[in-house]
Specification:
globular; 36% helix; 8-stranded antiparallel β-sheet; 5-stranded antiparallel β-sheet; 18 helices
């Protein structure tokens, strides 16, 4: 799948394929042009001049002994065992890559670890044994899902456990509209597995490859001001904990721990099974239209309250706002009859023309056998355009203008099942920061959501940030899970989620590094100027841990203001006293007095 955790098993044979050889050798090359070679030395011994000069002989023998001694000394100074961890090429420090070493990266390729411990149990019993053994040995096994989190929150060098092989639908209660599933099942698998029963999930995030356990633990969400984040759909869970074994929790059974663990960041136990409240499967009508901020302000309250799903896509350096709404197909009227003004080919033509024009002016040499641009989707074409000069503000503005034109020519309707319609092509590899903040209620929206966007756009233009499109804005109702950024005790509170982005459309390491630095500059501008002003907190799957100690201390203090950190840490101590389910990120966000 395109958006999935990357797991590569490293083989020693790859070294032979890459013609890698040990950098140390005690064999002297037989080079006749080398005055130090044994071949030359022997030939000198047989010549009349060599026999007449004992000093010459001693000199060459001395050189040979010196070389042999230096080689031996160097070799034994760096004694790498056969199973030594692979290191990047350094003089005299080559070591073979062991067979059991796995390289695991998130989908965007922004975070990667190497580990020898990667468990994939197939049954609950196997999972229980993995957790029990790790607890006894005090070795870490961080739960990791599909690896879609931009910040790699599930990754750990010390070891991981992945439930991809525990992916079954265990029970369907059609009458109550509930399903019990293993936590390793992917969203698309789940949807496909229950559609024959006329059921589906209440809401969806942008993509379908997430494992259910992962999407719940990080507080993922869809959009719709009347619909809560995905964790609120969970009515019971089965957790495999290091200290207390397998426990079942629900709203009725240990509700305090249940609400805490629904968005538990994988730190309270390995989520093995989940019972989810579903809804009837239904067709939706998606309507895409292009507006501007002035019109949005006039219609914002109506758009939030009258649409089941709604999101805005803002185009930086323009006043364009793409509005996407989704609602059930009317049982009486049926789907709308609408003939689009432009075909899909016509909608994308402007973007294709811009790519050809920019490519001609660019120093970039087209790759042989490159894909025909006529076969590329809009997001793929946008990646190629940005790759030509991703950090040049004027170039990015041109790409954004082309995107705005694409959306203008893509206005119209689309009808399909909710799991088909609510997806969104997020584009290629990327850095993203998404914040969540309260925006009043449906009956009394504060309009802070629109003010936030205006501030972001002003910040971009003032600082000439090469910000690509879109800035995505979505809404949810609140949740009772206290570790969720959208948690609230007031049932009618609503929250806005805003994502800023920079794509990584290149494999060039230097260019990716430069984009990364620019993105974190962009993110920091929003952090310093907007987060406290709007009480905004980052999505758990997108929060990055600062390297600076003062910044980290400030982040820890800020998290304490919003989340029940003490209660969370207390539960961690009780359920996972040795913190085998933790990783460096979790330890830094929620430090305890004692460390593992």
């Amino acid at each position: 799948m395109l958006r999935a955790l990357t797991l590569r098993r490293s083989l020693q044979s790859l070294h032979h394929h890459n013609h890698l050889k040990p950098l140390i050798s005690t064999t002297i090359p037989q080079n006749p042009l080398n005055p130090l070679s044994p071949a030359r030395a022997c030939s000198s011994l047989s010549s009349p001049s060599a026999s007449s000069s004992a000093s010459e002989l001693r000199k060459y023998l001395g050189y040979t002994a010196l070389v042999l001694f230096s080689a031996a000394a160097t070799y034994y100074s760096f004694p790498f065992p056969e199973n030594a961890k692979h290191k990047k090429a350094q003089i005299f420090r080559y070591a073979p890559l062991p067979e059991e070493l796995h390289t695991v990266s998130n989908w965007s390729g922004t975070h990667e670890v190497q580990t020898r411990v990667f468990h994939q149990p197939e049954t609950l019993e196997e999972l229980e044994k993995v957790v029990k053994d790790a607890h006894e040995k005090k070795t870490r096994i961080r739960p990791v899902g599909s690896g879609l989190s931009p910040n790699g929150i599930g990754l750990s060098r010390a070891g991981m456990v992945n439930l991809a092989l525990m992916d079954k639908v265990l029970e369907v209660d059609k009458e109550k509209k509930r399903v019990r599933v293993q936590a390793g099942i992917r969203v698309q698998q789940l949807v496909d597995g229950i559609k024959e029963h006329g059921l589906t999930l209440q809401n969806f995030a942008s993509i379908r490859e997430q494992q259910i356990g992962g999407i719940l633990q990080v507080g993922a969400h869809g959009t719709g001001a009347k619909l809560p984040p995905m964790d609120e759909q969970v009515i019971s869970m089965k957790l495999v904990t290091p200290a207390k074994g397998t426990i079942e929790i629900s709203k009725e059974k240990d509700p305090e721990l249940f609400y805490l663990a629904r968005c538990g960041l994988g730190g309270l136990g390995v989520v093995a099974e989940v019972t989810i409240q579903c809804v009837e499967r239904q067709e939706l009508v998606e309507h895409t239209s292009v507006s501007n901020m002035e019109e949005i302000k006039k219609n914002h309250k109506k758009l939030l309250s009258e649409n089941k799903h709604v999101k805005y896509l803002y185009i930086p350096y323009s006043d364009t706002v793409v509005v996407v709404t989704c609602n059930p197909v009317s049982k009486w009227k049926g789907p709308p009859k609408f003939k689009p003004k432009y075909s899909s080919d016509e909608a994308i033509q402007h973007v294709q023309d811009l790519y050809k024009e920019c490519l001609q002016k660019s120093s970039v040499v087209p790759v042989k056998n490159d894909v025909d641009i006529n076969e590329l989707s809009f997001t793929e074409l946008r990646d190629k355009l940005l790759a030509l000069d991703p950090l040049d503000k004027d170039h990015v503005v041109k790409v954004n203008q082309a995107e705005a034109e694409f959306w203008r020519k893509s206005e119209g309707y689309r009808v399909g099942w909710s799991d088909e319609i609510l997806g969104f092509d997020c584009g290629g590899q990327q850095w993203v920061s998404e914040t969540c903040f309260p925006v009043g209620t449906l009956s009394k929206p504060s309009l802070k959501d629109l003010e936030y966007i205006e501030d972001v756009k002003q910040l971009i233009e003032k600082n000439e940030v090469p910000a690509p499109a879109p800035i995505e804005q979505r809404w949810t109702a609140c949740t009772k899970s206290p570790m969720s950024p959208a948690s609230s005790t007031k049932d009618d509170d609503i929250f806005s989620w805003v994502g800023i982005i920079m794509y990584l459309p290149t494999t060039d390491a230097r260019q990716r590094k430069e984009i990364t630095e620019e993105f974190f500059h962009y993110r920091r501008l929003t952090q310093v100027q907007l987060w406290d002003k709007y009480s905004a907190y980052e999505h758990w799957a997108k929060i990055e841990v600062p390297k600076d100690k003062e910044e980290l201390a400030a982040l820890q203090a800020r998290l304490r203001k919003r989340f029940p950190v003490d209660a969370y840490n207390k539960a961690r101590k009780e359920l996972d006293p040795s913190r085998i389910l933790s990783n460096n990120k979790l330890e830094k966000l929620f430090p305890l007095s004692d460390t593992i």
